[in-house]
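Lab notebook: predicted structure, single chain.

Context: the supervisor wants predicted structures on file for every construct in the current expression panel, including those that have not yet been purified. This is the next one on the list. No modifications to the sequence; it matches the entry in the shared construct table.
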Amino acid sequence: MHLADRMQLGADYSARAYRGKADHPAMADVLASYREHHGDPEYPTVEQLDVGYAHLQDCDPATDIAILEHDGAVVGYSRVSWEDLGTGVRDCVVFAPTLPDHLSRPLFDPIVGAQEAHMRSWADAADVARYRAYASHPGQDEEPTGEAAWLEQLGYTPTEWEASLVRPNLDDIPERSLPEGVEVRPVTGDQIRPILAAHFEAFRGEWDFHEPTEEDYAEAIEDPDRDETLWKVAWAGDTVVGQVKPFINRAENDQRGYLRGYTEYISTHHDWRNRGIAGTLLAMSLRELRDRGMTEAALGADTNNAGGSFHLYQRLGFELQSLGAVYTKPAP
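Prediction complete. Output recorded below exactly as produced.
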């Protein structure tokens, strides 16, 4: 059964099948507005969607994606997928970005209900399964609003917390140094896959870790914003011990009217943590972005990170912009 056929929406709303790349311009517009509404201005491009949807995993575009329309215009979309985590849990992922003017409880509830119903067979095929969603949130000690409140009323519980941070300028970047025997080298083409492999491995043991697949590698390599001349990768001999892989989203800067670079994909080898590597590479990345003409930087962080990365970023001048929660609910 197609996901769209499960959706019993209100008057003037309808769901239809996904039409591939032809839908990507409207989907990118929806996602951009949805993110900005929730305090995340990261701007998705059609090229990014082309790559991401070419490498979907555990999601069949022919049945698992629905386009939401109001009076014939695209106002949202719904995509479901499942992910087997290293913990042995299968997460069935609820995802339905919607234009802000159409965010409402009467529309939200049937969309989530349809997604859950569509994924029930996936949950039944696993030993342990849960539904997983994400929503912006005012903070752990604050009353949830909007989609966060609606999810809680549907039985979801916040289990992880994430933050978007911005460094509003690239002045006064601190001087930091790498440990003895560790150096940063220019990235060559033959090193890209080993660098990606080291990044994936660094997150083994984290709540959302899964074994990397060829699709994971392909999506990262084909990322239209990938620019390895910006990357700061630390080596000890032949071992990657830390990395920050900055990028510049030119389309976002043009659209939002600023000069921002992202210092993302930050990781440190398990055996080299708490030795100042991540902080040093991040400071180097900020200088690189400044030298490329950027005037601010941004990144996302897991506020529960056991290594204290969230506080490191704050010490390096990043300021909290918005918060969000990962919500989960046991599958029946």
